[in-house]
Design brief:
Strand order of the largest sheet: 6-3-5-4-8
Shape: globular
Helix content: 25-40%
Number of domains: 2
Oligomer: single chain
Largest sheet: 5 strands, antiparallel
Low-confidence stretches: 304-309
Structural class: alpha+beta
Mean pLDDT: 80
Radius of gyration: 20 Å
Number of strands: 8
């Protein structure tokens, strides 16, 4: 059995094709500690000397692909290990948007059985979520997001050392070097999302009331939580799941920045989710995902050492 080539070979290949890469930790999907822990994915580059230097420091680092810098978006379908079903996700999209809704393009399988489907980024806004549901239909990642890609080269369909692989067919190493253009229906979804947000903002809102003690949040965190509660509690039907998903990511980032406790933001968003009409199971699934899986970076002003929460 042949050994798998070292990840640096694939990282350099991606960079040469204009795909901006950066190292992720060799035991997680988080940006590698060598990047300093601040703005990890934004260090992504196509400069071969920098790429070689990173993997020279940690030859086992996983390969992160900055989607925005690479001009890509990615449909993210969670695998069975995380309660997802990529086949059901694909079927739900095809049934809702038509049989040609997901044209052939780059597809990568993850060790958990999930799928990333990559397309060239369209002009204009890209919706982060879709108004349909399916097990593991996580989100659409784009500018400001990233995915961990296979560490295989030379058209290998075989998985890398961790089980990631490109599907047979179009891939960065195949005959079709470029990913396919994003489906046109995404622009329609983005327009619907924008219109719904504008309508929601035009609706008079009642401010929520929460007992947020100084041990639960900073003044900045409290104000931010109130805003997130309003966004979720007044989300229009058809956009409720998208709003609570977006709010949960922002709240998790506030927690990472030391501005709110995890227990408090989950309590606030659980209440808001109930107010807007989501079920406990729907809310619980989103909050669990944001707590354990979502890729976030610290948000809010830097905390002073010794400052009270």
């Amino acid at each position: 059995m042949s050994s798998t080539p070292p990840p640096v070979h694939a990282a350099l290949f991606y960079a040469a094709e204009g795909l901006a890469v950066f190292p992720c930790a060799n035991d997680s999907k988080a940006p590698h500690p060598m990047l300093g822990g601040i703005g990890g994915l934004h260090h992504a580059t196509t400069e071969p000397a920098i790429v070689a230097g990173w993997w020279g420091r940690d030859p086992r680092a996983r390969i992160g692909l900055n989607l925005g810098k690479s001009g890509l978006i990615a449909f993210d379908f969670e695998g069975p290990e995380k309660g997802g079903d990529p086949i059901a996700c694909r079927r739900a999209i095809l049934e809702h948007y038509g049989p040609g809704a997901l044209p052939p393009t780059w597809e990568a399988a993850s060790p958990s059985g999930g799928i990333h489907i990559l397309y060239l980024a369209p002009h204009g806004e890209v919706p982060s979520t879709l108004p349909i549901t399916a097990p593991g239909l996580d989100r659409i990642r784009g500018d400001g997001g990233y995915v961990v890609v296979p560490s295989v080269v030379a058209g290998e369909v075989l998985p890398d050392a961790e089980g990631r692989s490109w599907a047979s067919g179009p891939s960065p190493f195949g005959a079709s070097v470029h990913a396919a253009p994003a489906p046109e229906w995404l622009a329609d979804v983005a327009a619907e999302v924008t219109a719904a947000r504008r309508a929601a903002k035009a609706t008079p809102r009642k401010r929520g009331r929460f007992s947020i003690e100084t041990t639960d949040a900073t003044a900045y965190g409290e104000k931010a939580l109130q805003g997130l509660w309003l966004e979720v509690a007044h989300a229009p039907e058809g956009q409720r799941h998208a709003e609570i998903t977006r709010a949960a990511v922002r709240a998790a980032a506030l927690e990472a920045g030391g501005h709110v406790s995890g227990e408090k933001w989950r309590e606030v968003l659980a209440h808001a989710g109930g107010v807007c009409g989501l079920s406990e199971d729907e809310v619980g699934a989103v909050l669990e995902w944001a707590t354990t899986t979502a890729q976030v970076e610290p948000a809010g002003p830097a905390r002073e050492k010794g400052a009270a929460a």
